[in-house]
Amino acid sequence: MQTPAPFEYERATSVEDALALLERHGPDARLLAGGHSLLPMMKLRLARPEVLIDINDLAGLSYIRVDGDHLAIGAMTRHADVLASPVLGEHYSVFHDAERVIADPIVRNRGTVGGSLCQADPSEDLSAVAAALRAEIVIRSTNGSRSVPAREFHTGPYETAVGPAEIVEEIRVPIRPGAGSAYQKVERRAGDWAVAAAGCYVVLEGDTVSEVGIGLTAVGAPHFCAPDAEEWLRGQQPTDGAIATAAQLAADGCEPQSDQRGPADYKRHLAGELTRRALHRAVARARTGSNGQGA
Amino acid sequence: MQVTMTVNGDEVTRDIEPRLLLVHFVRDHLGLTGTHWGCDTSNCGTCVLWMDGEPVKSCTVLAAMADGRDIRTVESLEVDGKLDPVQEGFLREHGLQCGFCTPGMLMTARWLLDRNPDPSEHEIRETICGQICRCTGYENIVRAIRWAADHPAGAEAEEMSA
C-alpha cells in the first residue's frame, strides 16, 4: 500500500488566501491542484511537503478566453476542458492534438494546466506546447503579478521559476491569425508518458514560413524547444527537404536519456521524425485554414 | 481532521488523517468495498468513483479533497433491486470474468452514457482507455456498454412493455 508521509491539509478559498497560506507555512508547503502528479510522487516519498494547500475551490482560475490579441487559460483549467474548448481548437489545434494523448479521460477530469506546467516533468506534453507557442506564464505573489516566458519557466527537471510563495495564475498565448499547428507523440500504451513528442506552429506568408515555433518533450531538449530548427526554417519555403532539415536540427539539439521507454538513439530518431510529421501537418493546416480536424 | 461529504445520497462525517486516500476512506471507513483498490498509481482505473458528478481515480484523490463534495460509488447503481442497464449489460454480455476491474468500468460506462447515450465503439474504447482489464480483452466490455446504450431502461422494462 502506498501512502504519503504525514502532512497538514489546508484548503484555500481564494488566490489571496492561497498566497497567505504559502507565506505562513513557508517553503515546505506545496499547492495541490489535480494532484495526479504530486500525490503519486508523495506516495513514493519523492516529494514530502509538510503542508498541502488545496486550491481546487479556486473556480475563478478555471477559464479559457480571448483576451485582446491573446488566449488566456486559467491555471486551474482541467485537461478535459482544454480538449473540449472550441476557442483553443479554432486558434491552435496543437492543444487538442496534445490533450487527446495526455493520460486518459478520467485523469484529464482532474489534472490541470497549471499543475502540469508546475510539476515540470521532463516528459510533460503541455510544456512542449507552451514552449512551441512561446506562451507566457503569469505568476502571482502578494507583491503582484509577473510574466515569465514559457521558455524560461522551467529551470530544470521538476524545477520552475515559481517561488515558494507564488502561484501560477494564467497561461497566455499570442493569437497568430492563420497559424497552423500540430502535436505528434509516440507512447508505449494509451495514457503513458511520451517516449518522445513534438509540437509546433507555423505562419505562412504566401508560401514562405514567416513564423515558426517548435517544442519537444521527453528528449532532453533544453527548455522544451528547438531554436536552431526554428531559425533555419524561418524564411524558407516549407518543402519536404526544408522540413526534413529542420527536423534533423531539432533532433541534433536534443540530449535524450536511455530508460525503460527506449534507448537514447531511438528517442533522438523520434525527435526528428515527430518534428517532421508535426511540421507537415501544421503547414497543411495553415494552407487550408483548417486548424481543426483537417489534414 | 474532520470531513463531511455526501456518499450515495447520505451525509457522512468522519475523523481522518489528511493523508488518507479517498479509495481507503470509502472502503475501510465506510465499508463500501464495491470500489476496488488496484494499482495505486492511477493507471488501472478499478478505483473509479464519481466526485461531484465526474469519475475520478480515487487512489489519487485525498479523502480531505472530497470534504463537502458529492461522492457516488458503484453501490449506488442498483436501486431497489433493479440493476442499472450498464450492470445488466455486463451480466448479459459477459463483460467480466474475475470482476476486479468491473466497478471502475461500470462507473465510467454510466458517465459516458449519461453524456453520450449512443456512443460509437471507438468512443467507448476511448473512454475506458484508462482502465485495465486482464481477462476479457475488452471485447465483451465494449459489447456490454453498447448493450446498455441499446437498452436505456434495461431489458426488464422492455419485456414488460412488449
Short description:
The complex is a heterodimer of chains A (295) and B (162). Chain A has twelve helices and 13 strands.
Please characterize this protein's 3D structure.
The complex is a heterodimer of chains A (295) and B (162). Chain A has 295 residues and is α+β, with helices and mostly antiparallel strands. Chain A is built from 12 helices and 13 strands. Chain A has 3 domains: 8-54, 2-Layer Sandwich (Uridine Diphospho-n-acetylenolpyruvylglucosamine Reductase, domain 2); 59-174, Uridine Diphospho-n-acetylenolpyruvylglucosamine Reductase, domain 3 (2-Layer Sandwich), CATH 3.30.465.10; 180-287, Enolase-like, domain 1 (2-Layer Sandwich). Chain A is 36% helix and 26% strand. Chain A has a 5-stranded antiparallel beta sheet. The mean pLDDT of chain A is 96. Chain B folds into 2 domains: 2-76, Ubiquitin-like (UB roll) (Roll); 85-154, DNA polymerase, domain 1, CATH 1.10.150.120. Helices cover 35% and strands 14% of the residues of chain B. Chain B has a 5-stranded mixed beta sheet, with helices on one face. In chain B, α2 (85-92) crosses α5 (139-150). The longest helix of chain B has 14 residues, at 102-115. Chain B is globular and about 50 Å long.
Give Rg of chain A in angstroms.
19 Å
Structural class of chain A: alpha+beta
Strand count, sense and barrel status of the largest sheet of chain A are: 5 strands, antiparallel
Q: Would you list the SSEs of chain A in sequence order as H and E?
A: EHEHEEEHHHHHHEEHEEEEEEHHH
Strand coverage percent of chain B: 5-15%
Question: If you compute it from the alpha carbons, what radius of gyration of chain B comes out, rounded to the nearest whole angstrom?
Answer: 16 Å
* Residues in helix, % of chain B: 25-40%
Mean pLDDT of chain B: 95
CATH top level class name of the largest domain in chain A: Alpha Beta
Largest interface (C-beta under 8 Å): A-B, 28 and 27 residues
CATH architecture group name of the largest domain in chain B: Roll
Shape of chain B: globular
What is the assembly state of the chains in this entry?
heterodimer
> What number is the mean pLDDT of chain A?
96
| Unreliable residue stretches of chain A | none
Assigned CATH class of the largest domain in chain B: Alpha Beta
Give me the secondary-structure category of chain B. alpha+beta
Q: Which superfamily, in CATH terms, is the homologous superfamily of the largest domain in chain B?
A: Beta-grasp domain
